[in-house]
Amino acid sequence: MSDASLNSSTTAPMAQPGEAEFGDFFALLKPRVMTLVVFTALVGLLAAPVGVHPIVGLAAILFIAVGGGAAGALNMWWESDIDSLMKRTSKRPIPAGKVTRDEAFAFGVTLAVMSVVMLWLATNAVAAGLLAFTIFFYVVIYTIGLKRWTPQNIVIGGAAGAFPPMIGWAAATGSISVESVLMFALIFMWTPPHFWALALFMKGDYHKAGVPMLTVTHGRKSTRTHILVYTVLLAVLAIGAAFTGIGGPIYLAVALVLNAMFLRDAYAIWRRDEVMAEADEYRVEKKAFKLSLYYLFAHFTAMLAEAALAGFGLGGWV
Ligand code: HEM
Ligand SMILES: CC(C)=CCC/C(C)=C/CC/C(C)=C/COP(=O)(O)OP(=O)(O)O
After folding, report:
1. Nearest bound ligand to CA 160?
2. Which end of the chain is more exposed for a tag (fewer CB within 10 A), N or C?
3. What are the TM regions of this chain, as residue ranges (predicted)?
4. For 8, how many CA atoms within 13 A lie in the half-sphere containing its CB?
5. End-to-end CA distance of the chain
């Protein structure tokens, strides 16, 4: 490879326009993270007390997925400089020299506009407006605004990832309700412990890239305390939600088990120091991160089960 085809700030290869393959564009959509995003949107849509025609429901979920993917592509467009510095992200399509920044930008904007317009045509203006706002929030407020500026980036920016069930609910009902706001709140409170557990074992990455994550600005001990505090608040919210319109006995059982497990892990993380964590290669932190994914999946599955039973006149506490 000639020097001219290397990126000047790193030794990463530079992409040539038009050479990217389908898989490279697909990777820009952050498909793995978006699976859970799309699942929470699906639960929002199905749990709503208004029946949706299956074709309309399928179209709505597809457009929400495309909108989420577009937001991921625009995030990678803006962050290609720091992505090339971090081990975890250095193989992404732009730093790996597969897709140019201009291609990623055009791809992201096209899909973002298309997803919003199509969701509007398929469902209603409230759902489309929420999708547009979510994309804007993730790309402009979180990625361009907060992420490189404040360690509260995750706490505030996490709202972006909490909107999808509200979008799903709005696609079915055309409105926002207490139930969909509760789903939002659950993801909002869940995001900080989900991310900070990972930040603890992705040691050095954010430091190297100069991103002011809590681990970098306030240190690792403080991050451990933050995880515990947020997990306690999350448990109160998640268990309390069992006694609202999205809950019921099945949800309560799931919430009690999962929150006990998550609290146990958060407490173990808080009790540890770096020497202990280094010794077992961050086993507890890795376990908590993995559990965070099951945690959210299980809570939303339980909400879906309650809503399905309600359809037969059996859900909730009545
Ligand atoms: C600002 C908020 C969030 C931040 C900073 C964050 C950060 C991360 C990071 C850095 C990873 C590591 C894996 C990767 O690079 O792909 C990850 C994984 C993951 N996140 Fe999050 N996350 C956030 C919110 C969410 C939300 C809202 C969801 C879904 C509702 C979610 C679902 C997932 C899933 C499913 C994975 C595992 C992906 C895999 O298997 O590789 N995250 N998250
Ligand atoms: C419908 C719609 C628009 C949904 C968007 C959902 C959304 C905003 C999810 C956020 C999850 C996510 C990819 C976080 C990564 O944070 P990061 O970008 O800081 O992580 P990185 O370091 O891996 O790039």
Report:
1. 2
2. C
3. 33-52, 58-78, 99-121, 127-146, 153-176, 182-202, 223-244, 250-270, 291-314
4. 0
5. 69
pLDDT digit string, tens, across residues 102-146: 999 999 999 999 999 999 999 999 999 999 999 999 999 999 999
Taking residue 23's Cβ as centre, other Cβ atoms within 10 Å add up to 9
CB 62 near ligand 2, within 6 Å:
no
Pocket test for ligand 1, best of 29, 33, 139 (most atoms within 8 A of CB): 33
- Report how many domains make up the chain: 2
pLDDT band at 1 (very low <50, low <70, confident <90, very high): very low
Q: Is the pLDDT of residue 4 over 70?
A: no
Domain of 96, in residue numbers:
25-176
Nearest CA among 191, 212, 215 for reference residue 202: 215
Which of 176, 209, 238 is a domain's end point?
176
Phi then psi for 13, rounded to 5 degrees? -70, 150
Ligand 1 pocket mutation pick from 90, 92, 135, 194 by most atoms within 8 angstroms of CB: 194
- Claim to verify: residue 37 and residue 157 sit in the same structural domain: yes
Distance (Å) from CA 276 to ligand 2 centroid = 31
Asked if 140 and 85 count as a contact pair (C-beta separation under 8 A), the reply is no
Sorted by sequence, the CB contacts under 8 Å of residue 25 that are 6+ apart come out as 73, 93, 99, 107
**Residue 79 to residues 19, 189, 209, 230, 311, Cα–Cα distance (Å):** 21, 25, 10, 27, 45
